[in-house]
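Class prep. Sample record?

___
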Amino acid sequence: MTSASWQREAAEHTIAGHGVIVAEFFDAGCSRRLPWAGRPRAAALLAALGDPDRGFDAIVVGEYERAFSDTQFARMLPLFERHGVQVWFPEAGGPFQADNPHHQALMTMLGAQSQREVLRARHRVLAAMCTQVRDQGRYLGGRPPYGYRLVDAGPHPNQAHARWGAADAAIGT
């Protein structure tokens, strides 16, 4: 997990001389657009916030765009504050300060950038799929478009799979 590795390195650099990382909550394969409660490890972090013996007093984010999307941070900040947990960001050079207008502007900009990154990735994928259909004649699945004709392709190359089909046909009769 190279992403986890470089994010941990960024987090360690951010808190150098101020503290140590005592627990790690890293969600692999979860969209940042999901709320934290919908990501397994982020949900575990949220559950730990309520534990007075949680063993940490701050959350260090390796990169804003991997943790939050759009206005998620602004919506979650009251929860962090209620539990007395600071949130540190490499982009802020340390802990987020709610009364600092530069930090407020930075979080707004990072949220917009994160949302833009998601939309750009979606656009690139859809554009690539359209190009494959138009320029390469690739059929991308789903219901066959009008004009396709199904034909017998001969015996199945995998005899075990061919027997499954024969069994399914016998069940249907």
Remarks:
- The domain at 2-134 is CATH 3.40.50 (Rossmann fold).
- The chain has a mean pLDDT of 85.
- The radius of gyration is 25 Å.
